[in-house]
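Open question from group meeting: does this chain pack into something compact, or does most of it stay loose? Before anyone orders reagents, we agreed to write out a predicted structure and look at it together. Recording both the input and the output here so the notebook holds the full record.
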Amino acid sequence: MSQSLHPMLNVAIKAARAAGAIINRAALDVDLLKISVKGPNDFVSEVDRAAEAAIIEILLQAYPEHGILAEESGNSHGNRSSQFQWIIDPLDGTTNFLHGLPIYAVSIGLAHRDVVQQAVVYDPARNDLFFASRGRGAFLNDRRLRVSKRTQLGDSLIGTGFPFRRGDNFERYLQMMQSVMQRCAGVRRPGAAALDLCYVAAGWYDGFFETGLNPWDLAAGSLMITEAGGLIGNFTGEPDFLHQREVVAGNPKVYGQLVQILAPFSRVISDSDDATAGAAAAQATSPGDAAGAALAAASAAGQPGAAAAAPPARKPVRIRKPVA
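Structure tokens returned:
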């Protein structure tokens, strides 16, 4: 790498590469791995745990006062009261890995006061390193990343993920998928959200949406997108997405169009009215129906004045960089 990197980013890159080396060695004999089941279709292998342990060891050697939030061990390591928190997914795409499908990644983000400042997503199968520092841009290896320039959803390629855990609302997701698929050029689901977000930052996808994701799936990739000129938020277009279990991202034009489609499905609007909102939104099968679906959902939920007029369309919300 030719550019000078932030010291904390350098440590994160060292940790990601160490985890990637563990994953690559294990990929040679996947059939020999010990696998546990966290839930239906939700697996964890000894590789996940070994990679996570290596990451945490390197990070805490450099910054012992920092906190840790990791997929497998939670916040059991590090300083829980620290304003700095490393958010780690040691192997995003475990199911792909266990099947020999080379689409998985190591994801490491550093948040300061809940704002992600440094990010690394490492694809060990391709030796591709995505990294970003707040205010200094996003990169793939030595190439600066920029989101795509497409302006119409109808010309856009959209990434997503499918629900797979027990209790996931499959009907709600199929309604969202129907609404998006009818309006875009294509939908892709590789199975590793951290890479999906990087693909938006690289301009390979024009947008992305998914439900049920955790902070370790999103933290690093979210900074890639904003540093590449894109937007990311929850389904209502607000920048509060990291803990909301719903996310939409894209270049600014496509992001705004996706928000209009996905807003009726948002759990942020009202968790208690989720089923009603989803059922009403299912009726939106043409490009002009999104606002009508939101109105129908509000009316069915008994909200005052819902039948009088459709709620105004939300404008895309740009995530503001904190003032130093």
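Observations to bring back to the group:
The domain at 153-300 is CATH 3.40.190.80 (D-Maltodextrin-Binding Protein; domain 2).
The chain has a mean pLDDT of 84.
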